[in-house]
Automatic annotation (TrEMBL):
Residue ranges occupied by any HTH lacI-type domain in the UniProt entry: 8-62
Originating species: Murimonas intestini
Protein name: LacI family transcriptional regulator
Pfam families referenced in this protein's UniProt entry, alphabetically: LacI, Peripla_BP_3
Domain of life per record: Bacteria
Keywords: DNA-binding, Transcription, Transcription regulation
CDD domains membership: HTH_LacI, PBP1_LacI_sugar_binding-like
SUPFAM superfamilies: lambda repressor-like DNA-binding domains, Periplasmic binding protein-like I
């Protein structure tokens, strides 16, 4: 008669090794503060019994699951996928489980916030343009450590806020267009209009002001979804006062503009120059390749996760409200050139 083998628990390992449950937990979490003889005894039992630890039980003394939630607003945008890749690399290397929470609308945002609180996640990285549920994000901040990457948290100060030189980056790329000879410029932004986007638009305005250029009100475009951006670009291209250069707030919107410009039969950069911001992989796939502002997106993901884990390991000395800004750099490629009349 076959018998069902009982699944080994941490309590069983502690009993077999003649150690406490907390000692087993420290070994499972690679804590260096364990006697080497005890560590070897525990690991030998784990190997012999083919024990697979339950992630929900790893941090017995902390009430945490070693899960880190990564809240992102749009998975199809390469900006988010690059940050996720960087954050995931660090989390896995440190024995944490990264969980992607796609919060493309207020309902999903509320669901994931409640779920992460209930599941006792160790911390969260917020990588969304903005948070909609102010009360819920406050509750999340009270339950776990938060790090933000270019995201506004309804007045909540995260442990760290990571950003880049938004205004300077757009200023420099607008300056590049002006120095090429462009005098009729347009600017494309996305919605909602967060601080990050406001800083980038301010950089465009400052460059125009410094070089004594004005731009028409209808040359400042806004759109959130692909369809909105596409329609705005089409209206701009078909207008009587068509610009010679279009400066986009990010590579995502620049990619949509690129498609629409080509569909309308115009050439880049012969008929219109085009720039972006981010330096996503899509920038080098375009033909011609996109002139853009580079920000170290994947490194921002890595740093955010590293800082969050360090804060969890030093919970007795928390920090709050630290802002880290990464440098931006203009990457010159083939999508910009002097206007045809020059």
């Amino acid at each position: 008669m076959n018998t069902i083998k009982k699944k080994l628990t941490i309590d069983d390992i502690a009993r077999l090794a003649n150690v406490s449950r907390s000692t087993v937990s420290r070994v499972l979490n690679n804590n260096p503060n364990v006697n080497e003889a005890k560590r070897k005894r525990i690991m030998d039992i784990i190997d012999e019994q083919h024990f697979v630890p339950n992630s929900m039980a790893r941090n017995l003394g902390t009430g945490s699951t070693r899960t880190i939630a990564i809240f992102v607003g749009e998975i199809t945008n390469q900006y988010f996928s690059e940050i996720i890749r960087g954050a995931e690399e660090v989390a896995i290397s440190q024995g944490y489980f990264p969980l992607i929470c796609l919060i493309q609308n207020p309902g999903r945002e509320q669901f994931y916030i409640e779920e992460m609180i209930q599941q006792r996640a160790s911390g969260a990285i917020i990588v969304s343009s903005s948070i909609k549920n102010a009360a819920s994000i406050r509750q999340l901040a009270m339950s776990m450590s938060l790090v933000s990457i270019q995201s506004e948290l309804c007045g909540i100060a995260p442990l760290y806020y990571l950003d880049t030189e938004n205004q300077l980056g757009i200023y420099n790329i607008t300056k590049h267009l002006i120095q090429l000879g462009h005098r009729n410029l347009a600017y494309l932004s996305t919605l909602p209009n967060t601080t990050v986007l406001e800083e980038r638009y301010a950089g465009f305005c400052k460059a125009c002001s410094d070089f004594h250029l004005s731009f028409a009100e209808d040359h400042v475009l806004h759109g959130y979804h692909k369809e909105d951006i596409s329609v705005s670009v089409e209206n701009l291209i078909l207008s009587e006062n068509r610009p010679t250069a279009l400066c986009c707030c990010n590579d995502f919107s620049a990619g949509i503009a690129y498609q629409k410009i080509r569909q309308l039969g115009l050439r880049i950069p012969e008929d219109i120059s085009l720039t972006g911001f981010d330096d996503l992989p899509i920038a080098t796939i375009m033909n011609p390749m996109l002139t853009t502002v580079k920000q170290p997106i994947r490194e921002m993901g890595r740093r955010a996760m590293k800082l969050l884990i360090e804060s969890l390991d030093n919970a007795e000395n928390p920090v709050s409200g630290t802002v880290l800004r990464f440098p931006s750099e203009v990457i010159l490629r083939e999508s910009t050139a002097p206007p045809a009349a020059i």
